[in-house]
Design a protein that fits this description.
Two copies of one chain form a homodimer. Chain A is an alpha/beta fold. Chain A is about 40% helix and about 10% strand.
Chain lengths: ~500, ~500
């Protein structure tokens, strides 16, 4: 009996709308299928009678009319869409469809969310400058796009560990992170019950879910990287693919010959996946099986429409190591692999650092775009300085805003516990809100057509002392109101 | 009897070193006077036997050998230096000395703090690209420099209000803000006991103190801007000058003809000083008395060596209003006033916005430098987006890091309560730490010679799992350790 079947496992998740908002749906007609697509929005009603509709990632949990049962999962909206279509050029991927000129329902849904033309979405996916992570085995997810010409996206890492947390806690983190705006989730669970935790998360997640399969694979060999084999890894990927993982981090660019490039670094290799693969390469003195079997991996990914998130196993772990030869050597290999994956009809994004001082950030984006055919860049921060543990959500938001403005398509959040411990529910919220504001700062700077309206609506309410409107329009209405009420608790202070 | 004399007013302030640090002094010989200057440093001892000395703003409060009595104030170290020198070219200002080729003890002290050559400090002050705010009536302050070629500085606003807080609370905020790294303080007190609060703060402040004299002047006319006169304002400035205020914000660039430029804005005029002066100009339909009497003001400032902080009364209050004609018209006038002040031997810095999206930040710095003869730029944030009240320390740290990297010399902090309420002691710390990390990110990007060593020392301790060293090297050791201990409280987890 898995945790999902075990009705005694209570998962109480947060439901109900964000303060001052209500869930609405925009109906979008799909002329190809005749279907009506229901595109969710967070509607903020204002005291002057108007309203503002905002991009919404929270799924049915904020819909007061939805019935939530974490044991059955959320509705499989995409099931019919997937069933009703066959392969083109041997692939049933969004990339293959886009290249063949097919505008999928996913693309139309995305276009409505972003306020863009469906044809623009299709063309960006076709050239690989955007990806739609959407495993055919995860029909519950609401389609979203990752690409530099769309809203900057935010990923939240969750997952239990051998030390702390349980399946219900991770379920709540999933709902909680998407409530505050996480566009994708990565389940980085380790320890016991990895499979069950993932199953529960995917069946209930309204956003794409990513994983790092090597983490589970190494658990299967008692944590000893040297015992890993291609077969164990491949079977782990298939297991996860069947569950519906939408994108997978693969550290296929950590080549044997790159490992010595890290020996003079201040902080060596800090990526867990990078360390595992470096240890394997050195133990066997062989080239990485992720690299040598990459085309087989592409075929598996193609069959499910899983998106590659090519991992930066040699990313810098300190500002001192940023933009060094180890990092850029790996990036060149990731570029090579990008083109191989695309030739199999598989979507690709590229992971980026980590720790980079402000003046070296733009070079990362420029090189990534040049070497990897403009595949969407997906960076962890980066932290712009290393001197503030406990505040690394902020040191990294500074780098994140900068790198997103330069063209990074998705930001992996960093919580206040980074480098120190495991994030709790509050840390998850702080991380998500911090990254949403960094992403939005970049959307403004890049001139996304729907970005500035939000700022202006809030600023007008501020200037006119419409306090409740200001709270409700905030990324986090509850904190805004609580801070106000600490100084001026009287009701009159919110209306005058 | 003033609050300072009233021994029944208990001011308990935080004393003792920061966790893991000790106060040390570097002795610096001044060849001109034969004096030995004692330059304070925060020394972090490491478990491998080495140590790192860091720039220290905390004054005697972190020195275990110092005896603190807030009723008598801290030692007047500069008293002898000031007494022993006369005017050059009619002025006893750091600018006048620098232009005459004199390297003051203040400049030597600063050079040692910054790791720079004294002659470089002198030359930067001489051309007005750096300022040393040091009123001759504030001999207690430890000299510091504000200029783009030095460490980026952080100002913390404190001050009581009619609504909340007391003199002892503001005293503690002063000690608390400088403990965590505030380089200057602005006392923005309103309501009762403005004079007494300021007196107590200045006598006990190891850092320069700034004010906005128009705030007190308008209290003297019952809060009605129309009743203000040049004479009331002038007398207020002299009152504050005698107390030792080191720099004053003067909104002399809000000209009558600029006020109509703000009518089409989303958020009109949001600067309090700007609003007061705009109201005065409109009520009298006359040019601002700050502008028409500017040369008289210069003479007062020169006599005390007060530094102008020319205020941006027409700064944008939302990203929508950034870089508009009202803002830049005022900036041109501030440039004109800069040259007048300098001709009187008076030091000048220029205040900047506020709310600016990322892509418009660099233009602010470029124009300020061009129009104001490279006078040090002193910005409030700026916030890179308006959608996150409750998190404006972060939205503004993103803008602050960017603007400092572009050349801003000092950043005015923003706390989580910005736009919502009055900061408490915790908010002050969060604001200061957030701005220190933003400033340091810019120091790294600009290549300040002492910046990277701190990051590398911390990163090495992290890579070698020297947890205590990592905590002690952090900007905020207590929070770093507390976050670690939430997950892994055992002592063993900090050593292995």
């Amino acid at each position: 009996m898995t945790a999902l079947d075990d009705r005694s496992v209570q998962s109480t998740v947060t439901t109900g709308p964000i303060t001052g908002s209500e869930k609405v749906y925009h109906d979008v007609h799909d002329p190809d299928s005749g279907r009506t697509l229901r595109v969710p929005q967070r509607r903020v009603g204002l005291s002057n009678g108007s309203h503002l509709d905002l991009y919404d990632t929270s799924g049915p949990y904020t819909d007061t009319t939805a019935s939530i049962d974490v044991h059955t999962g959320i509705p499989a909206t995409r099931e019919d869409w997937i069933a009703g279509r066959g392969p083109v050029d041997g692939a049933s991927t969004q990339l293959a469809y886009a290249k063949a000129g097919v505008t999928t329902p996913e693309m139309r849904f995305i276009a409505a969310r972003e306020g863009m033309d469906p044809e623009f979405v299709r063309s960006e996916v076709a050239i690989g400058r955007a990806v739609i992570p959407a495993n055919r085995c995860h029909p519950e997810s609401e389609p979203m796009v990752i690409g530099k010409n769309f809203l900057v996206k935010v990923n939240a890492n969750i997952g239990n560990s051998a030390v702390t947390s349980s399946v219900p806690e991770e379920m709540e983190k999933m709902v909680w992170a998407t409530r505050w705006g996480a566009d994708t989730l990565m389940d980085l669970s380790t320890g016991k019950r990895i499979h069950e935790t993932r199953e529960r998360i995917i069946r209930n997640s309204p956003v794409p879910v990513g994983t790092v399969p090597i983490y589970q694979a190494v658990e299967k060999v008692d944590g000893d990287p040297a015992k890993l084999t291609w077969e164990i890894y491949r079977d782990t990927v298939i297991e996860q693919a069947e569950q519906g993982v939408d994108y997978m981090t693969v550290h296929a660019g950590v080549l044997l010959r790159y490992v010595p490039l890290t020996t003079e670094r201040v902080t060596g290799i800090v990526s867990r996946g990078g360390s595992i693969m470096a240890a394997w390469c050195l133990a066997h003195h062989e080239e990485s099986f992720l690299y040598t079997h990459f085309e087989e991996l592409c075929e598996i990914f193609r069959d499910y429409d899983i998106t590659f998130s090519l991992g930066d196993g040699l990313r810098p772990g300190s500002v001192a190591d940023a933009n060094d030869e180890a990092q850029f050597a790996e990036l060149r290999t990731l570029g090579e692999l990008t083109h191989i994956a695309r030739s199999h009809g598989v979507q690709v994004m590229i992971e980026g650092p980590g720790h980079v001082p402000l003046h070296k950030i733009a070079e990362n984006v420029r090189l990534e775009e040049e070497l990897c055919g403009e595949a969407p860049f997906y960076t962890l921060g980066p932290l712009a300085t290393d001197i503030a543990p406990g505040y690394d959500h902020i040191t990294s938001a500074i780098g994140a805003a900068q790198v997103a403005w330069s063209g990074t398509a998705m930001l992996c959040y960093v919580t206040p516990k980074e480098h120190l411990g495991l994030p709790n529910r509050d840390d998850v919220k702080t991380g998500v809100i911090t990254y949403k504001l960094a992403a939005h700062s970049a959307d403004l700077a890049k001139g996304h057509p729907r970005a500035q309206e939000w700022d202006d609506t809030l600023s007008r309410s501020r200037f006119e002392f419409r306090w409740q409107d200001q709270f409700h329009l905030a990324l986090d209405p509850d904190t805004a109101q609580a801070y106000h009420d600490e100084t001026l608790p009287a009701e009159g202070a919110k209306t005058a």
